[in-house]
Amino acid sequence: MSHRRLRTLRALSSAVLLAANLFTLPAAAAQAGVTRTDLQRRDLSSPGREAVQVRVDLAPGVAFGRHTHPGEEIIYVLTGAIEYDVEGNPPVTLKAGDVLFIPAGTVHAAKNVGAEAASELATYTVAKDKPLLTLAQ
């Protein structure tokens, strides 16, 4: 196979995987008052793993329900005050500049507890063949 065809095949494969991942996000990921902006998605040196960075904006009083991820989530609060309810821990409220680590598969939820919009930078290190987000029951 020529180098050009191989590059084209790789690009198409990446696009298909990205589209599949986006379409497998639950409808709740697009709920009113929550905006998720994909910033980047890159393969990691570990086969079958990728890093995904997403900016999540929450309107005042809006909560994002209980869910899990197929890998670790590292949160950096950009603005506002967000309460995180991580299974097995008491709820914690973080403000701009605070960070939080959520282990793979851990059920958690977030709520904007401030009077203004709140934003976080979420970085995931996840398995490529699984949905990025799964709602908990």
Description:
- Helices cover 15% and strands 48% of the residues.
- The longest helix has 21 residues, at 3-23.
- It contains 1 helix and 10 strands.
- It has a 5-stranded antiparallel sheet, with no helix packed on it. Strands 6-5-8-3-10 form a 5-stranded antiparallel sheet, with no helix packed on it.
- By secondary structure, the chain is α+β, with helices and mostly antiparallel strands.
- β5 (81-86) and β6 (92-95) form a beta hairpin.
Notable characteristics:
15% helix; alpha+beta; 10 strands; Jelly Rolls
Strand content: over 45%
C-alpha-based Rg, rounded: 16 Å
State the helix count. Answer: 1
Number of strands: 10
Highest-level CATH class: Mainly Beta
Which residues sit in consecutive blocks of at least 5 with pLDDT less than 50? 11-29
What's the overall geometry? globular
Structural class: alpha+beta
Written as H for each helix and E for each strand, in order along the chain, the element string is HEEEEEEEEEE
* Count of domains: 1
- The assigned CATH architecture is Sandwich
* CATH fold category name: Jelly Rolls
CATH superfamily: Jelly Rolls
What composes the largest sheet? 5 strands, antiparallel
* Helical content (DSSP H or I, runs of 4+): 10-25%
* Main sheet strand line-up: 1-2-9-4-7
What is the end-to-end distance?
47 Å
Averaging pLDDT over every residue, what do you get?
Answer: 86
